[in-house]
Design a protein that fits this description.
Length: 148
């Protein structure tokens, strides 16, 4: 009896986790992420619980700021809005990169995890925007989003 309950619990957890893994990316053709360029996707949550949301960026070598701020917007199936600000430091005060450089001369930010409670099952809307003072944030090549 205990073994059956254990296997049933494991199968339920595995199926819920499989529903939560996906990745979406957006590239910016002219190398600028405008405040109107909102990444949008939907995601079906199979079971209530916490999820890990990770964001990542690819930046050009002429990026002007020490950090970058992103706004993650999660809209529940019932319409409840949850905003989360995510900050990443990419340059030290002297202007030296804190990120690894790729062969193409760009810099890739490490994924920054944020834990979010998902209280409902159903389809969530997920949005990611740049949240800097300038309406156009140049030298941003690509942004990515992953939920686990």
């Amino acid at each position: 009896m205990r073994l059956t309950l254990l296997w049933g619990s494991i199968l339920l957890l595995v199926s819920a986790c499989q529903q939560r893994e996906w990745t979406t990316r957006q590239t910016f053709d002219d190398g600028c992420w405008y405040e109107t360029d909102t990444m949008r996707t939907t995601w079906v949550n199979a079971a209530p619980g916490n999820c890990q949301v990770r964001t990542g960026l690819t930046l050009g070598q002429d990026y002007l700021y020490q950090n970058i701020w992103l706004k993650l917007i999660l809209i529940s199936p019932a319409g409840q809005v949850q905003d989360t600000l995510i900050g990443m430091t990419v340059l030290d005060p002297a202007g030296n990169w804190l990120l690894p450089r790729s062969l193409g001369g760009t810099y890739t930010a490490s994924w920054v995890p944020v834990s979010l409670p998902l209280t409902e099952t159903g389809t969530y809307q997920v949005r990611l925007t740049q949240y800097m003072r300038d309406s156009s944030l140049c030298e941003v090549v690509e942004a990515g989003l992953q939920i686990q």
